[in-house]
Each structure stands twice: as C-alpha cells, then as structure tokens.
Amino acid sequence: MAQKRRKHGGLVERGGRLTPKLRIALYCICGITVPFSLLMIVGAAIGGVIPLIPT
Q1: Domain count for the chain
Q2: 11 φ, ψ to 5°?
Q3: Is the pTM of this model over 0.70?
Q4: Is 3 strand, coil or helix?
Q5: Phi, psi dihedrals of residue 4, rounded to the nearest 5°
Q6: Exposed/middle/buried for residue 23 (C-beta within 10 Å: 0-12, 13-18, 19+)
Q7: Given phi > 0 = left and psi -120 to 50 = alpha, else beta, which region is 9?
Q8: Domain range spanning residue 29?
Q9: 5 phi and psi, to 5 degrees?
Q10: What are 20-52's pLDDT values in tens digits?
Q11: Rounded Cα–Cα distance for residues 24 and 38 (Å)
C-alpha cells in the first residue's frame, strides 16, 4: 500500500519525517552524474594509455 505524501511548502513528508525538496533533488542529481562522470574518467584514462602499450 502506498504511503500518502503531503507537501508543506518546500518540504515533503514521507514516513512521518519532513525532507527538504532541495536535498531530494541533490541526491537524484548526484546519483545520476557521479557514476557517469567516474566512468568517463576511467574511459579517458584507458584511452590515453592504449597508444603507449607496445605491441
């Protein structure tokens, strides 16, 4: 059964606690951008090393 969510200005009530909307937005943004940024850095490092490997 889904819980009811009531809005209180800039806060969202969930599970009896009030959470700022900004915190929820930051968690979502960081959860999306951080993993992809780390993967892009690893990919760039691998791409930069490949020409240095003697064959």
Answers
A1: 1
A2: -120, 155
A3: no
A4: coil
A5: -80, 140
A6: exposed
A7: left
A8: 7-47
A9: -120, 125
A10: 888 888 999 999 999 999 999 999 999 999 999
A11: 22
